[in-house]
Amino acid sequence: MGDTRQIDTTKPHPARMYDFYLGGKDNYPVDQAAASQVEKVFPTVKTCARANRLFMHRATRFLAGEAGIRQFLDVGTGIPTRPNLHEVAQASTPDAKIVYVDNDPIVLAHADALMRSLPEGRTAYIQADVRQPDSIIHAERLRDVLDLSQPVALSLNALLHFVPDCDGPYGIVERLLEPLAPGSYLVLSHCTPDFAPEMWEKVIATYHAGGIPAQVRSQDEVLRFFDGLHLVEPGVVVPHRWRPDGQIEAKATDAAVSFYAGVALKP
After folding, report:
1. Closest CA to 265 of 235, 229, 219
2. How far is residue 258 from each of residues 45, 102, 263, measured CA to CA in Å?
3. Rounded Cα distance, 169 and 43, in Å
4. Angle made by CA atoms 204, 172, 90, in degrees to the nearest 5
5. Domain extents for the chain?
6. How would residue 242 be classed by pLDDT, with cut points 50, 70 and 90?
7. DSSP-assigned beta bridge partners for residue 260
8. Phi and psi at residue 88, in whole multiples of 5°?
9. What is the pLDDT of residues 85-109, one digit of tens each?
10. Closest to 55 measured CA to CA, from 195, 265, 232
11. Predicted TM-score (pTM) of this structure
12. Long-range CB contacts (within 8 A, 24+) of 232-238
């Protein structure tokens, strides 16, 4: 697993739990135990994770292909699972540039997997916390790779349900979008209790018991993240209904996935 000196294996971490849901091996017994507790109350959590992952692939292909985006800022990257965002983007646009951001040292330990860019493009990794957006915006490595005078796709997938209201998630998104040029896009996915509220009370309680802040949001609350932007059709929907292309998670239903996802243009 690389250098684990900074990695706290005494507490579960959402990135490592997500890796477990996706069938990865970069997680620890404490993550496996917490993820198993979530699975007991949310039996389709692995279906949810896969459906969200496939949404990221489709949204990235849309942006790199149809929308002509050449630059991506992926915050809350998580543990690399192939194909990574840059591999999807560069399959359409070989000269695409991608900056990944995460605050988990285990992601840093695997950052080499995020750096395998095609020679025409470029990737970089920044260790930073989304709750401190200025540390991302002003990072020298970000400015070295991305030209913020040109459109950028800001990707916040399966991240903001770990940013409770007390940390100002709406302000964080506004701050991250602020320096991006017109023609940029926001890609966002977020857990919701809309389809199974009682189940989600138990899921959130499980995360809180592991010391992980978490807060799910309704469709209206997720829509607020897109204020001032122009939503791409079909708007904010469950991820398997966002421009499906045949690569859909087989067991996906709205309640089984319990996510909302959307893509929007910054005018």
Report:
1. 229
2. 9, 24, 17
3. 28
4. 90
5. 14-265
6. very high
7. 190
8. -65, -45
9. 999 999 999 999 999 999 888 888 8
10. 232
11. 0.93
12. 232/62, 232/185, 232/262, 232/263, 232/264, 232/265, 235/262, 236/260, 236/261, 236/262, 237/261, 237/262, 238/51
In the chain, count of helices (H) and strands (E)?
12, 7
Q: Looking up tokens 């489709």, which residue turns up? A: 58
Sheet holding 71-75, edge to edge: 122-127, 97-102, 71-75, 153-157, 185-191, 259-265, 230-231
The two structure tokens encoding residue 37: 């507790």
- Fold (CATH) for 14-265: Rossmann fold (3.40.50)
- Could you tell me the pLDDT band of residue 250, with boundaries at 50, 70 and 90? low
Residue type, 207: Y
- Roughly what angle, to the nearest 10 degrees, separates helices 29-41 and 197-209? 160
Structure tokens at 244: 């499906």
Residue 121 has pLDDT above 50, yes or no: yes
d(CA 192, CA 161): 9
